[in-house]
Amino acid sequence: MNIGFVGLGKMGQNMVERLLKGGHKIVAFDLNREAVKAAKRKGAIPAKSLQELVNKLKTPRAIWIMVPSGEPTENTITALAILLTKGDIVIDGGNSFYKDSIRRAQELERMGIFFLDVGTSGGIWGLKIGYCLMIGGQESVFEEMEPVFKTLAPKDGYAYVGNSGAGHFVKMVHNGIEYALLQAYAEGFEVMEAKKKFDLQLAQIAHLWNQGSVIRSWLLELAEDAFKKDAHLNSIQGYVEDSGEGRWTVAEAIEENVPAPIITMSLLQRFRSRQKESFSAKVIAALRNLFGGHPFKK
Length: 298
Description:
The protein is α/β, with parallel strands linked by helices. It contains 13 helices and 8 strands. Helix 1 (10-21) packs parallel to helix 2 (33-42). It is globular, with a radius of gyration of 23 Å.
């Protein structure tokens, strides 16, 4: 298929490469000129602007957007909508908030433009392994674009999950679960790291747990690699960002009256990781000293 691709970051660049290897023709654009040159070296047709990208595609056009959620995605879709014509397809493969995707689908539909929201998981390993794709929108449009999804995903690695917004909703919850899994592994390894008496080898244990254990996973494979490179992670600062999906999952759980304490606490622990010192801990230490005479560290 002929596809326009906007956004050539780490994931976008690898997705373009995988599509090219799958026999698709790609017209690629990014604000970063060097990224466009890199895509050209892989076989993509370069574009210097969105206008040029649109001009180089035959109608009906299909354009995949892989840019950060929020304003970058909003601006890109708004700019494309002016350039596209009836029957064209816009695919948002980023981590957009699902309610924004529902709105965008409705706005584009009024212009005769189709929209698919595609939750994309796979990170930097997607080029080799393939991407897990969670797809929302009109089912007929999904079917039209299925050859693209089949190329990007491993076997059984893509699915049409529902109407507009469903793809990004499923990806949002996926990432909320990811937060909780990461926190559980992190806490377990911290307990073992703290038990100096046994001098435990964390890389060995991560490898061991992946041999038939009920908690085996790809994350444990990555943990093994991390501990092999740096047994006590001395080179890494314990500062963890969040990209939004965890917050959205917690907010959705509250909106739907669903108890989600583990995902919620994993999100709050990320906030804690960014504090050099906890003010709330200071308050607790001060109060314990005043009501019970418990000592505190100066």
